[in-house]
């Protein structure tokens, strides 16, 4: 019994050590991902996942939780990783996420966020930040 307890304790300590030492993505990726999460929040658009539409605030919170999980498991190194791993489809159902903005048809969240990321990067070169737009 002592051996089993020591083994379990060893695994728990290893798991905690790994979680505490999981590498954060590079600073530029963190900045871009934070921009995308805020972009979602400011958009006023609706987010479709697992058969229901959610407001932008809940979408941001959901994707932030997924991002935090992925970072803890060292699965995000770029903003593209975030889009692919966290913001494209449900890990539960496998169904693709969609974004629907006022006056527009629903589009795949991956393409919507990809466009937002491209605009952000272009604006960084020009020294301006794009505003959240419901037409994206």
Overview of this protein structure:
With 136 residues, the chain is of the alpha+beta class. Helices cover 59% and strands 9% of the residues. It contains 5 helices and 4 strands; from the N terminus they run ααββααββα. The protein has a 4-stranded antiparallel sheet with strand order 2-1-3-4. It is globular, with a radius of gyration of 18 Å. The termini are far apart. The relative contact order is 0.15.
Key attributes of the depicted protein:
globular, single chain, 9% strand, 136 residues, 4 strands, alpha+beta, 59% helix
Based on CA atoms alone, the radius of gyration comes out at 18 Å
Q: Major sheet: size, sense and barrel closure?
A: 4 strands, antiparallel
- Percent helix range: 55-70%
Strand content: 5-15%
Termini separation: 60 Å
Mean pLDDT: 87
The strand order across the widest sheet is 2-1-3-4
Number of helices: 5
Instruction: List segments where confidence is low: pLDDT < 50 over at least 5 consecutive residues.
Output: none
Shape: globular
Q: What's the SSE pattern?
A: HHEEHHEEH
SSE-based structural type:
alpha+beta
Number of DSSP strand runs: 4
Summarize, please:
By secondary structure, the chain is of the alpha+beta class. The protein has five helices and four strands.
Indicate the topology.
Elements: H1 2-21, H2 27-43, E1 46-49, E2 52-54, H3 56-72, H4 79-86, E3 98-100, E4 107-108, H5 109-126
Antiparallel strand pairs: 1-2, 1-3, 3-4
